[in-house]
Amino acid sequence: MEQSIRFDEDLIKRYNQSGPRYTSYPTAVQFDESFGIPEYQAAAERSNASDRNLSLYFHIPFCDTVCFFCACNKVWTRDRSKTTPYLDRLYREIEMQSKLFDPSRKVDQLHWGGGTPTFINMDEMRELMTVTRQHFNLHDDDSGEYSIEIDPREANKESVKLLRDLGFNRMSLGVQDFDPKVQKAVNRIQTEAQTFEVLEGAREAGFMSVNVDLIYGLPHQTEAGFMATLDKVLAVEPDRFSVFNYAHMPSMFPTQKKMNEADMPSPDEKLAILHATTNRLLEAGYVYIGMDHFAKPDDELAVAQRNETLYRNFQGYSTHAECDLVGMGATSISLINNTYAQNYKSLNDYYAAIDAGLLAVFRGVTLTEDDELRRDVITRLISHFHLNFAKVEQQWGIVFNEYFEQALPRLAPMVEDGLIELTETDLYVTAAGRLLIRNICMVFDAYLKPGTQNRFSKVI
After folding, report:
1. What is the pTM of this model?
2. pLDDT tens-digit profile of 109-127?
3. What CATH number is attached to the domain comprising 124?
4. In a domain, 333, yes or no
5. Which residue range(s) make up the domain with 437?
6. Would you list which residues are annotated within the binding site?
């Protein structure tokens, strides 16, 4: 398949509405507290009858400083001793969770996210991985996709080598922007030297893939300034880029109020940054994976997309589609069988549940067959930019045009605008439509109603 994009500013402006990012379907808006521990345990039991392997996610919420733009669930503290009570509970949760799953099920995917996972010290990193290996069936080679999010201010070559020795083989580096004025405005002072030491250390240690995160839309950013950062990172040729649009939602994320909205680039300037960034990455030989992500053409994500085996979950794009996801730690989300389940968000609630000998699940949702079908359609679109109706019909026992009779007319304007090509057998997302894939997926979302979309960020 062709992995290119065409930047059409008029189309983007017309379609740039709010909508879900579809890390899950249904989205977390549909999670409900009527779903609890019994429903989660039943889902785990059902999943053991499958041939699916496991994916593990561990949330480490702590950060030494707070980045004002951040929308993650984090705990800002300079007190490193706070990791001890958290990890003690996490170890107990690992033990409780492991008892629900058949020990023969291999862990094909593992991810540490945050917060700042490298906030914990090297001894704690060793201990966390040791406890995980005691209770779950991890690979001893690089056949698993074991990744970690890294703040270069909290890592060095020594800690990167340790992470590789522990089994990690992929990492994502937070950069955002090298401009000192931007860094001061968002309270993230990070030198180029710190960043490139970690990236160089990853290569020396034999990491299979390194991703770099950039964010556009922050205070004082300009097209020229952002291109200067991009060019510096391009010079070291990371395997992947994630180029995120900053979503300013201060009512939901109070620390965003600490930034001056008047200093943020205008919508036109943001589009100019995105346009220039997209062109620069394509010229450098990267391909567009989708949803802000770019990769080298020989990267496993790019290969999986061409083969239509790519998948997307809470950790982003993945080559391991057929896994049940077990989320551990405060606020983590699990995807087990036909359910989503979320842990308590606050440390106090999380600690109280674990101390009582209970799983920390406090809400979730059991998917109907319609939910699963629509999730499959959305996942195929967001991962492959292509939908073959016969494959969906065969898997779900439906007649596509009849089942989606009400949704399909909403695709007509997108055909006219050149976002998609629609035949009797297939839907193809065009080069111009790929940046607007969220809009296309929204057509198949049964939960989106007028007035509900403002809970989500803009698509561009």
Report:
1. 0.94
2. 999 999 999 999 999 999 9
3. 3.20.20.70
4. no
5. 1-26+368-459
6. 57, 63, 67, 69-71, 114-116, 149, 176, 188, 213, 247, 333
